[in-house]
Amino acid sequence: MQLFRGHRNRWRKRIKTIEIDNPQELLPYLYWIEKQPLRFLLPVEMIRMQGAFPYDNHHPFVAALQAGQDSLATFYERFVPETLVAMYSLAECGRNGEKLPPWELPWVMRHRRTPPSGERRLDSRHGVSFYGPASAQKIEMEYTRLCDSTRSIQKHGYLPDRYGDIEGHVMTDGRDTRFFVRGGKHRAAVLVYLGYRRIPVCLRRTWPLVIDSRTSTDWPLVVNGSIDINLANDILGVYLEGHRI
Q1: Cα–Cα distance between 177 and 197 in angstroms, integer?
Q2: Is 20 in contact with 179 (CB distance < 8 Å)?
Q3: Which residues sit opposite 18 in a β-bridge?
């Protein structure tokens, strides 16, 4: 095991770090074929959590670190979308897919369309991290997780080579480009809270590298007729612009 860890650590040190200034600079790196993995330093403004929430002072996790657990409880109490259009504050106008559950994503293919699973010994009945309602145990767990991560990073620094990267995929319409966090949403919030202006991220290889509105005719829920293509593109547009509730 020690030999494996040593090998892994040597490999992690070989990561190539790319600093991105303009969102369009990121797109060519989606075609990187070298064995050396990439880590991107992205402007905070490019980062999104599910729900299309930008990582700014209004982000529920960042706000909780600034104002305390009651701020997080208020978010879960006030933001309780029951449908996909409510999730993104879009108007209902009779389009197919408006009544889909709020956790759905038009560009994701799965064998089974199931809600997000629970986290840290709390099952899904306690709620999910990116909208309400949430139980008192869930709220406390999320807040404790944020505080623990903050203390760790303040004491030891941010160490993705040891504990793993913030991972996700790229979203674009050919003009604007954003990064959707699929793993590490709490760490991303902590870094923003601590004043980082660039967030280190990696592409998650088990997800599509890029979601591009110019290929929305191929998105799984569009192909199978579950969602109107215009609604699907509107949802991506919310991610590009940012969702504030």
Answers
A1: 17
A2: no
A3: 40
Q: Could you give the CA distance from residue 188 to residue 175 in angstroms, rounded to a whole number?
A: 24
Chain mean position to CA 14: 25
> pLDDT tens digits, residue range 143-197?
999 999 999 999 999 999 888 899 999 999 999 999 999 999 999 999 999 999 9
- Cα separation, 180 vs 196, in Å, equals 18
The confidence score (pLDDT) of residue 126 equals: 86
Q: How far apart are CA 81 and CA 56, in angstroms?
A: 21
Are the C-beta atoms of 158 and 195 separated by less than 8 Å? no
The DSSP code for 225 is T
Exposed, middle or buried, 17 (CB in 10 Å: 0-12/13-18/19+)?
Answer: exposed
pTM: 0.90
Instruction: Write out the E strands in the chain.
Output: 16-19, 38-43, 47-49, 53-54, 166-172, 177-183, 198-203, 210-212
